[in-house]
Amino acid sequence: MNKIGFNVLAWTASVSDDLFPVIDRLKGIGYDGVEFYLGPQEIAAYQRMGDYTRDLGLETTAVMTLGADENPISESVEIRQKALDKIKLAVDRAHALNSKIICGPFHSAHTIFVNRPAEDQEYALAGEVLNAAAEYAAQANITFALEALNRFECYLCNTMEQLHKLVKAANHPNVRAMFDTHHSNIEEKNYGTALQTIAPVLAHVHISENDRGTPGSGQVLWDDAFAGLAAINYQGWLTIEAFSRNDPGFANAIGVWREFNEPWDIAENGYKFIREMSLKHGL
């Protein structure tokens, strides 16, 4: 069975010792790993968390985003360099966490638009930055799992077809892709076709309901999603990504204006749901 993870963004975007009781309870539920947002905290905080999760027998993965001043597809050489520097810092933090995967939409700046579709040159620019960053990440045996976002958060990569194009542009074995059921619910015509498209480079999966609440409680076509993963023989993380307003600054940044489900409802019932669907579809 695939490993099941939980992204603690349901509580906070910060990494600190305050999360230890949350980590303990996630371990008790049965999770194999925990996913953390790579923010500005001192690397010592990531080291302590890495040690704590390792001692509990939990693995870790990580997620990151970039802003307008560190955009890999900017026309500005200086801004692209800032993007590379930011990703390298994230690699250092992920390494301290013992994470082998950094996922997220760090191919471009989150929610920054230019009022036109993406151009080939932008894929090339992102590819150059990601290739250079992947050379650094490879030294720590870290893989990038790039994420396609819905049209309201990103214009470079909305679909698996576009994401596959970006991975090819990066041209590095440590640059791969992620599939997110929430974004694909908005942008893809068919889960099975989308997964077949990204299968050759798929490295990570986010299990996320259409409203970002408890998986299985909304409108995502979960049988299609799990059947599609089974059809490509996916072997990797199935990590729940759900949001709340527990961290107002982060919630405001991603447009979360209400509670979808209580975080422990998401964690407990989401875990059961993934187990049930995985058994049903032979994952």
Describe the structure.
With 283 residues, this protein is an alpha/beta fold. It has one domain (4-281): TIM Barrel (Alpha-Beta Barrel). It has ten helices and eight strands. The chain has helices spanning 20-29, 43-56, 77-97, 120-138, 160-170, 181-187, 191-198, 222-231, 248-254, 263-281, and strands at residues 4-7, 33-37, 59-63, 101-104, 143-147, 175-180, 202-207, 238-240. Strands 1-2-3-4-5-6-7-8 form an eight-stranded parallel barrel, surrounded by seven helices. Strand 5 (143-147), helix 5 and strand 6 (175-180) form a beta-alpha-beta unit. The termini are close together. The mean pLDDT is 96. InterPro entries: IolE/XylAMocC-like, Xyl_isomerase-like_sf, Xyl_isomerase-like_TIM-brl. Residues 24-252 form the Xylose isomerase-like TIM barrel domain. Its EC number is 5.1.3.31. This is D-tagatose 3-epimerase.
